[in-house]
Amino acid sequence: MMSNDENNGRTPTLADVARLAGVSTATVSRYLNSPDRVIEETRKKVGNAVLELGYAPNFNARALAAKRTNTIGAIIPTMENAIFARGLQAFQEELGRSGITLLVASSSYQTELEEEQIRTLVSRGADGILLIGFHRDPKIYEFLKRQNVPVVVAWVFDQNAKVSTVGFDNYEAMKALADKVISMGHRRIATITASPEGNDRASERLRGIRASMTGAGIPETELSIVEAEYGIDEGGAALEELLRQSVRPSVVICGNDVLAVGAIAKAQELGLRVPEDISVTGFDDIEIAKISSPALTTVHVPHRRMGKEAANILIGLVNATQTQSSVLIETSLVMRTSLGKA
Amino acid sequence: MMSNDENNGRTPTLADVARLAGVSTATVSRYLNSPDRVIEETRKKVGNAVLELGYAPNFNARALAAKRTNTIGAIIPTMENAIFARGLQAFQEELGRSGITLLVASSSYQTELEEEQIRTLVSRGADGILLIGFHRDPKIYEFLKRQNVPVVVAWVFDQNAKVSTVGFDNYEAMKALADKVISMGHRRIATITASPEGNDRASERLRGIRASMTGAGIPETELSIVEAEYGIDEGGAALEELLRQSVRPSVVICGNDVLAVGAIAKAQELGLRVPEDISVTGFDDIEIAKISSPALTTVHVPHRRMGKEAANILIGLVNATQTQSSVLIETSLVMRTSLGKA
DNA sequence: TTGTAGGCGTTATCAC
DNA sequence: GTGATAACGCCTACAA
User: Do B104 and A102 touch (CB under 8 A)?
Assistant: First the structure.
């Protein structure tokens, strides 16, 4: 065989394969999409041509003609946060099982960026989209509806929402933790949280703490709040800020395990014993919670299950085999040693 | 205004916008791609039409016609591994700065899966691709070359490779660590590593340890090796296995920080003091290394810088403003307390 | 500055 | 079973 570049430098197309195999483009297309609809002999001819040319179908052309991409998009706040990255991994694995590819984008918690990414995903023909949390311009939901792109919102749960949700009740989950904290005698409560601005998980959790305090007769104004970005060092810095305030808290409720671990490390560095001098709690229950010393009292979030369920609901929505529905992922309190009596 | 669905349920197209605005499709296209080439007045007309229809361009059609996607693909082994997730985040941020979208896939360390994903990415028209590590069927590199898709391989460095690399010398980095370990008197050396099968980072690091031992006159056959998947618990289980062997190692060199932290936790659980009874080292220097107790002696890998550099090289390759080139990312030994004298 | 028209690589509807 | 051929939605010379 002399060579296989009859067609100068172009990347081979369906037509090239058809020519080489001596069949029509229609047949090649059939060979690719439903091989059983083409007779054995031609199948071989076409197969060889495909191999010889190193042909790879042009997805964009296919999507254009077929009006379906077998693609689902997901936008998460950040991949830096282990729990999102891992939930996404589970989501992806489940999609893979159905031969669906995942398109990922991360918004860095910027809503405008997220809007743009949603449009990009839709432009790319995503058959469905996974989003984290409710909070966003209602116009986006309208846009998505108009474009006929089903959505699943994860990390939150609301039976009555107009979209499908797969997650837990952030308010209740955090309230349960706070109730426990208060039941152990704590009154001087502080929290280190992500900015609740445009972040409904964070604001709901904050609301949970406040409700718990109020329920116990503690004025919610007594709650000290420090905002921090995601990161161990950030958690430490936030703790320092907390300690600069007039009354030292007896417990610091953190928005996630990473912040909590950072707070613990900083406290110890400053000579405070945890939990004897100050208690600290986390949220998420990622692996780090177990190996932290003291081990972290936290809220367990089954992120892999959440990712998996989200994938299945979205797939159902896309195939229209399922109508809008939400699933509640149960969280649970995990008592370890970083939370002690007041 | 009565409504904006003159066109039944279809999602609006360029033609719809053109019709509504009373201009040609070419003008709308120009409005979208180079607004400065259309006069203010028509710009307004078209803009309104776009808004009113909630028009979103069809990316696939655009890619088909323009033969450029402004998209770059990346395949990483897994998002579960924080250092990949974070390197990828940096990669993405850098691409975003140039208006390029990122397509992500994770191969779960399965080479066949990776091959498939590479084809998918190419099919989707990725202008360039980021891969982790060298090791893969040469045919893939040929395929990529034939398809004219530039590649950057990260997490490894080889000036002489036929593709661009952005990373460090895994062999040298680990050898430096091992040299240090041995200089502290250790002779009974063990390692917990990811399976080196088809993983050149892991196998190179293993080679580094062996070379160091040989250099110090320690028969490399004395190296105890246990393979483990990524995870704290996996690291712990691996340590247990190591301790079941006849001679107890004085030091355990782990393939990454997560395994190391797991090993430390398990050792302590079994009543061993670290580093007095057994030393442990990590690799990567992610945040967890600092808060581990004892803090982890490890190899610092500037993953964000690596992601960023990889993005820039790939962008240069895609724009053909740059030819193949590799950049070395320097790693460094970080001495903390988990490594003590033998 | 704007419009006309051909083409990008596939799929899908028909006939044959 | 297989082959023409018209979409699919957009871009881009080329004209006007």
Answer: yes
With beta carbons less than 8 A apart as the criterion, state whether B206 and B194 touch. no
Rounded Cα distance, A154 and A83, in Å: 12
Chain A residues with beta carbon closer than 8 angstroms to that of B56: 119, 122-123, 143, 147
- Among B245, B256, B165, residue whose Cα is nearest residue B205: B256
Give me the DSSP letters along A300-334.
E--HHHHHHHHHHHHHHHHTTSS----EEPPPEEE
For residue B68, is pLDDT > 50?
Answer: yes
Phi then psi for B232, rounded to 5 degrees?
Answer: -65, -50
The strand pair at A332-334 and A298-300 is best described as antiparallel
Domain positions in chain B: 1-55, 170-300
pLDDT tens-digit readout, A55-70 = 989 999 999 998 888 8
A127-142 mean pLDDT: 94
Rounded average pLDDT over A25-32: 95
Q: Looking at the structure, give the CATH architecture of the domain made up of residues B170-300.
A: 3-Layer(aba) Sandwich (3.40)
Task: Sort strands B332-334 and B298-300 into parallel, antiparallel or unpaired.
Answer: antiparallel
pLDDT tens-digit map of B174-191: 999 999 999 999 999 999
Asked if the Cβ of residue A338 lies within 7 A of any atom of strand D, the reply is no
CATH of domain A1-55: 1.10.260.40
Q: What residues are paired with A337 via a beta bridge?
A: none
Q: Which residue has the higher pLDDT, A279 or B98?
A: A279
Alpha carbon distance A285, A192 (integer Å):
16
B181 alpha carbon, distance to own chain's centre: 28
* CB count in 10 Å sphere of residue A20: 21
Q: Is the CB of A27 under 7 A from strand C?
A: no
Q: List the structure tokens of B73.
A: 């693909």
- The predicted pLDDT at position B8 comes to 54
Using CA coordinates, name the residue in chain A closest to B52: A143
Per cent of chain B over pLDDT 70 is 97
Q: Name residues whose C-beta falls within 8 Å of residue A233's C-beta, 6 or more positions apart in sequence.
A: A262, B287
Q: Do B287 and A232 touch (CB under 8 A)?
A: yes
Chain C footprint positions (protein CB, under 7 Å): 1-13
